[in-house]
Design brief:
The chain is α/β, with parallel strands linked by helices and 266 residues long. It contains five helices and twelve strands. The strands form three sheets. Strands 7-5-4-8-9-12-10-11 form an eight-stranded mixed sheet. The longest helix has 24 residues, at 38-61. This is Methyltransferase type 11 domain-containing protein.
């Protein structure tokens, strides 16, 4: 994988915890003009128009499409823009968000305290849980580093949609072992009996993946999803079925996913 990706930098998000496709598109357009020029933006405008035709089609004719995960049936997420990663049906967010969102809803219905590491789910739906994100500056988001976060109360659930894998890996200075410090503090701020639900897109963070393969980063429970074709994904039984899959940099998506649970460590 190309390791010359741009590092994460603070980004001012001017909308609240509610999806705003137009604002997201304008932000992307301004950045593209600055980096690649007007011709590139014009071409991308054509592509984006086609994508929103696809979005209309999927929502009207594919909205009942489902996939199975851990014995449950979920609907694919069809959304035009999720956290700057493009249309959800072109990346792993079409399955990640429905799975983790169901867990969040379950906890919130029972008045449990929930924390999301990385601002992802608010792009797709309204939320009322806490979000910590060092780089997205927005009302309602806790702009702190997860390794230093020390809230006045403990959380019953902490989730991460493809974001823990970027801690230390996509920062300057690069510090891959920082992910272990993040995990340690996440455990510290968990309430007794609490749990973390973490999704990992395979192929992004080779340091984390080596820890997982060597058994140095362990989930108490874990499941695996593998990309099939189009927006289709299927659950597979072993990490061996995804461990050789490469990250698709063109589509900005992993082709294999781990979704794992870590229970509160005493």
């Amino acid at each position: 994988m190309n390791d010359n990706r741009s590092p994460y930098t603070p980004t001012k998000v001017v909308w609240g915890n509610k999806s705003s496709i137009l604002t997201e598109l304008l932000k992307e357009a301004r950045e593209s003009v600055r980096k690649k020029g007007l011709i590139h933006v014009f071409k991308m405008g054509i592509v984006t128009s086609y994508e929103y035709f696809q979005l209309f089609f999927y929502k009207k004719f594919r909205n009942d499409e489902t996939f199975y995960f851990n014995g449950k049936k979920y609907h694919y997420l069809f959304h035009g823009r999720v956290a700057g990663a493009g249309p959800s049906w072109k990346n792993e967010r079409c399955v990640n968000i429905p799975i983790i969102w169901e867990t969040i809803e379950e906890y919130r219905k029972n008045n449990k305290k929930v924390l999301e590491l990385g601002n992802v789910i608010s792009y797709a739906t309204d939320i009322d849980h806490d979000v910590i994100d060092k780089y997205e500056i927005m009302d309602g988001i806790i702009n702190e580093d997860i390794i230093d976060f020390n809230p006045k109360f403990k959380y019953d659930l902490i989730v991460s949609v493809l974001c823990l894998q970027s801690v230390g890996w996509d920062e300057i200075p690069k510090d891959p072992p920082k992910i272990l410090k993040a995990l340690e503090n996440m455990n510290n701020i968990l309430a007794p009996g609490g749990k973390m639900v973490i999704s990992v897109g395979w192929g992004w963070n080779q340091y984390l993946e080596s820890l997982i393969l060597e058994g140095k980063f362990k989930f108490d429970e874990q499941w695996f999803l593998k990309h099939d074709k189009g927006y289709k994904w299927e659950e597979v039984q072993s990490i061996n079925e995804i461990k050789d899959l490469k990250y698709d940099e063109k589509a900005y998506t992993a082709r294999g996913i781990i979704i794992g649970i870590i229970n509160k460590k005493s």
